[in-house]
Amino acid sequence: MATGKNPRVTVILECTSCVQNSANKSKKSSGISRYITQKNRHNTPDRLQFRKFCRYCYKHTVHGEINK
């Protein structure tokens, strides 16, 4: 049986506007929205970016892939 790296990896998507606003600390945001998903590293070697709903910003924002 072949043993090797699994092409599917688990990635974390984080809200980009919450990260920028947490540095300013002027927004009433109390956290950073994060989603967990999987990607195929052979098909998508670049970082993922999706528009997802952020429950702290109360709107759809860009969520980008972060390092663990």
Automatic annotation (TrEMBL):
Q: Which residues form a coiled coil?
A: none
Keyword Ribonucleoprotein among UniProt keywords: yes
Which PANTHER family would you find in this protein's record? 50S RIBOSOMAL PROTEIN L33, CHLOROPLASTIC (PTHR43168), LARGE RIBOSOMAL SUBUNIT PROTEIN BL33C (PTHR43168:SF2)
Q: Which Pfam families match?
A: Ribosomal_L33
Q: What are the subcellular locations of this protein?
A: Plastid, Chloroplast
Record GO biological process: translation
* Keyword tags: Chloroplast, Plastid, Ribonucleoprotein, Ribosomal protein
Q: What is its main location?
A: plastid
Species of provenance: Trithuria filamentosa
**Name of the protein described by the UniProt record:** Large ribosomal subunit protein bL33c
**A GO CC annotation given for this chain:** chloroplast
Q: Which HAMAP family match?
A: Ribosomal_bL33
Family classification: Belongs to the bacterial ribosomal protein bL33 family.
Q: Which InterPro entries match?
A: Ribosomal_bL33, Ribosomal_bL33_CS, Ribosomal_bL33_sf, Ribosomal_zn-bd
For the keyword Chloroplast, the answer is yes
Annotated GO MF terms = structural constituent of ribosome
